[in-house]
TrEMBL record:
The record marks 78 as: Lowers pKa of active site Tyr. This is Aldo keto reductase. Gene3D superfamilies: NADP-dependent oxidoreductase domain. SUPFAM superfamilies: NAD(P)-linked oxidoreductase (SSF51430).
């Protein structure tokens, strides 16, 4: 599988997303099995957040990761905007750590911007990093103006990643955000990289070109969509699934390389933006 370097660690380019997991008690064992299947297939990054199910996803992840050596995994969680202050972030982090049954996070992300001044959030993230409870910090749902503002703050250029929505049907990042991040050596974590199972509305999975490429590689259409997202360096995709079979297919997509001609054909179907677009957030 291809790799990406994030926060000083080299990890496989396909990780495990956990949004919507932990919400249905009847699915708990199935979801735990899916996460563990992903790790068995080579995943090392597990991405979650205190927002997901109001902590239920973190609880599920904490249980799923018990059989493994903690240092072998790369665990990401996120702080809500209302908790991203000097007064509240430490307690929020501690609650996440308890739910996850760990004493540190590899990466702690500011989930999206709120009313707390960005400088205050960054200063508190840096302070928490010094305690060892987080190994690195970053941001999420940041657009180009947010990133430029971040880089002007004391310590802002110590951010280890930005996590944004990115898939073949949502290419706004290609115009300014991804080039800027490449220039500043800031990895992208792509959430919803297969458009939430094609609920986004562009009919990616039924597109004739996508299907043709999938047939040529003896792959699924979702594997093609994932291969497109990780086609360039320093992009980590975190698809979410509660199915063991789909999880294994997701991880196998890390081996799939699309040709120049195939990428050009996808560009024709889903063109690169020629001007700034609104940042897509879900």
């Amino acid at each position: 599988m291809q790799n990406v370097k994030i926060a000083g660690r080299t990890v496989p380019v396909i990780g495990i997303g956990t949004w919507h997991m932990g919400d249905r008690p009847a699915q708990r064992e199935t979801e735990i099995a899916a996460i563990q299947a992903g790790i068995a297939a080579g995943a090392r990054v597990i991405d979650t957040a205190e927002m997901y199910g109001s902590g239920r996803a973190e609880n599920l992840v904490g249980e799923a990761l018990q059989p493994y050596h903690r240092e072998d995994l790369f665990l990401i969680s996120k702080v809500l905007p209302e908790n991203a202050s000097r007064q509240r972030m430490a307690a929020s982090l501690e609650a996440s750590l308890q739910r996850l049954r760990t004493d540190y996070l590899d990466l702690y992300l500011y989930h999206w911007r709120g009313s707390v001044p960005l400088a205050e959030t960054v200063a508190e993230l840096q302070r928490l990093q010094q305690t060892g409870k987080i190994r690195a910090w970053g941001v999420s749902n940041f657009d180009i103006a947010d990133l430029k503002e971040l880089w002007q703050l004391p310590g802002g250029d110590q951010a280890a990643a930005n996590e944004d929505l990115y898939h073949l049907g949502s290419r706004g990042l290609d115009y300014a955000v991804l080039p800027w991040q490449a220039e500043h050596d800031l990895p992208l974590i792509a959430y919803s990289p297969i458009a939430q199972g094609d609920s986004w509305g562009q009919h990616l999975a039924t597109n004739a070109t996508v299907k043709q490429i999938a047939v040529a590689h003896q792959a699924t259409v979702y594997q093609v969509l994932l291969a497109w997202v990780i086609r360039q360096p320093q992009v980590l995709a975190i698809p979410q699934t509660s199915s063991v079979a789909h999880m294994e297919q997701n991880l196998a997509a890390g081996e799939l390389r699309l040709s120049t001609q195939e990428l050009a054909a996808l560009d024709q179907q889903f063109p690169r933006p020629t001007q700034k677009e609104r940042l897509d957030i879900i």
